[in-house]
Specification:
With 224 residues, the protein is an alpha+beta fold. It has helices spanning 31-39, 42-48, 60-66, 88-107, 147-163, 171-174, 181-187, 196-211, 216-223, and strands spanning 2-3, 13-18, 21-26, 55-57, 70-74, 110-112, 120-123, 126-129, 135-137.
């Protein structure tokens, strides 16, 4: 069994290769969330709209043998790409896909806990979300926990690419957890503050982070 990437950091489960077959282990700690994902109808809707990578469930005996709740066999991807390799249009499509998934999740009483651009891949030319374990039950009144991450991974690079220089998308190669919002705010032209979306989600957001003495990933997660 060979673990892939940094998925071992997720307590809900991880992706691994088993004799050349890609599999996803779903640990027992994620049982309640996975059951809600299926019983709420969200999983089926995401499959039908082509927003989430399809998977098949392995024989329950296989999960029992390794002490997991379930073992999934995701549809294999013929090619893996990274956000810093995408053009502006691809990054925009990936951002809109993430927001669409979050909107559908809210409709079904769930929310995305992870809005990393690395959770999107392109299959047959269309963006698809690949992390089946990134959904959790919605807590009423709680802000979107992945909001800061979404701003760093999508909004900041898109704003810089469109308002400054398209080559600034390459900054995501250095800042793997997203472009720090204070840096994005400094690089954007002053007139960008006249655009409500950028003023709220980048400039004011960055100012709030600095005011509370936090930057980068920690700030984004604290902001929620």
């Amino acid at each position: 069994m060979d673990l892939l990437g940094s998925s071992f950091r997720d307590p809900s489960g991880h992706v691994y290769l088993d004799e050349g077959v890609l599999k996803r282990r779903v640990d027992k700690i994620y049982r309640e969330q996975f059951d809600l994902l299926t019983s709420s109808g969200l999983l089926q809707v995401l499959f039908e709209e082509g927003l989430l990578i399809h998977h098949e469930e392995a024989d329950p005996a296989e999960a029992e043998r390794i002490g997991a709740f379930k073992v999934l066999r995701p549809e294999p991807l013929p090619f893996v790409s990274y956000p810093y390799e995408w053009c502006f249009g691809q990054l925009k499509d990936a951002a809109l896909t993430t927001l669409r998934i979050q909107s559908l999740s809210l409709d079904h009483g769930m929310t995305l806990k992870d809005a990393s651009a690395f959770n999107i891949q392109f299959l047959k030319g269309q963006p698809v979300f690949i992390d089946t374990l990134s959904f959790e039950k919605l807590e009423e009144g709680r802000p979107w926990v992945a909001y800061g991450q979404f701003c760093r991974h999508f909004l900041a690079p898109l704003a810089l690419m469109s308002s400054v220089d398209v080559r600034l998308g390459q900054m995501s190669r250095v800042f793997l957890d997203g472009i720090p919002l204070d840096l994005a705010s400094e690089l954007l032209p002053g007139k960008s503050k006249l655009r409500p979306g950028l003023q709220i989600h980048i400039h004011a957001h960055a100012k709030s982070q600095l005011k509370h003495g936090s930057k980068g990933r920690e700030a984004g997660e604290a902001k929620g």
